[in-house]
Design a protein that fits this description.
323 residues, alpha/beta, six-stranded parallel beta sheet, three-stranded antiparallel beta sheet, 12 helices, 11 strands
């Protein structure tokens, strides 16, 4: 057992750090299997050496946020634990904790180390693949960075796309005009935008074409310059569709391709364009891939448990097939 002691110097902020009834401290204790005692602004942590260090850095990260006027609740505390857990340098943790994407309606912070890595890769590369299960923030963070860059004047246009219905995009038998047919499949992209920009601004930018949300087929034959381009549900593209999409990249543009290779809805025997692209492009400079897992799920806590259960089931089935 190890023991760590330190002080938080602003007593006025202490209650925000520890939470009502020490709720925030209890979350950290449970997550890291440590005991935390607070006496005034003095904090003592007992547990395994690495866990004590992680708990101290999580508390310091929470303190840093409330010192900057950032509201901290249960989700932010759990995020602080995820962000400051493990054997990485304190400087790198500090860099990750300082990432912020500024939009009109809210400031958005990474809630896991993988999310922080993903944001940094999107900032530093022209093409990034985000891989992993639902609820890990892949699309949400890509849209947030796109909105942030547009507000800073770094890009002129945001283009959001995904395969409609399935890779073949057979929309003809659905009722309504084309917009009515495809909108239900693009709804998650609209939802993300409306969380980051006022409704009237989203509607205006959609009307004048500064933001475009369209099914994948609409990308054919175009060159997309000065734009941030996001392809969602990319596991349901064919290799030909994926090649078509990737070759739309123009000058001063950035492209993010997101998908979950465990959720391929293509007809049996068809190769996923996402899987094909990863194997084809993995050695090209300027292209990066970030893989999320159940630990990065930031939705309801039960979602992470569901994802882990399916991952375990898939692993067991794979092992049986190998035998």
């Amino acid at each position: 057992m190890a023991e760590t002691e330190f002080e938080l110097f602003n007593n006025q902020l202490l209650q925000q750090v520890v939470g009502a009834g020490n709720a925030h401290i209890s979350i950290i204790e449970e997550a890291l299997n440590v005991e935390i005692e607070t006496i005034g602004n003095h904090i003592r942590i007992k547990g395994e050496e690495e866990s004590c260090r992680d708990a101290k850095e999580a508390i310091e990260a929470i303190y840093s946020k409330v010192s900057r006027g950032i509201s901290v609740g249960e989700q932010e505390v759990r995020a602080a634990v995820r962000m400051n857990k493990g054997d990485i340098s304190k400087d790198k943790k500090a860099d990750m904790n300082n990432i912020v994407l500024k939009t009109k309606k809210r400031h958005i912070y990474p809630r896991s180390q993988t999310q922080a890595q993903y944001i940094m890769e999107m900032m530093n590369n022209e093409l990034v693949f985000g891989l992993g299960p639902a609820g890990t923030g892949k699309t949400y963070l890509a849209v947030a960075l796109a909105v942030s860059m547009m507000l800073e004047g770094l890009i002129d246009k945001i283009i959001l796309s995904r395969p409609a219905v399935e890779a073949g995009e057979n929309l003809g038998f659905l009722p309504g005009d084309l917009k009515e047919k495809v909108d239900p499949y693009l709804r998650p992209l609209y939802d993300a935008l409306y969380e980051m920009l006022p409704t009237e601004q989203v509607d205006k930018k959609l009307a004048i074409g500064e933001i475009e949300i369209a099914p994948l087929a609409f990308m054919r034959g175009r060159t997309l310059s000065n734009a941030f381009i996001i392809l969602d549900e990319a596991q349901n593209t064919t290799p030909m569709q994926m090649k078509m999409f990737l070759t739309r990249l123009g000058e001063n543009s950035r492209m993010v391709v997101n998908g979950d290779l465990s959720q391929i809805d293509l007809p049996r025997g068809n190769v996923s364009g996402l899987k094909d692209a990863l194997s084809t492009l993995h050695n090209i400079k300027g292209i990066s891939a970030v893989t999320f897992n159940a630990d990065d799920v930031v939705r309801h806590g039960l979602v992470a448990k569901i994802v882990r259960a399916y991952e375990q089931k898939n692993k067991e089935e794979h092992d049986r097939n190998q035998d």
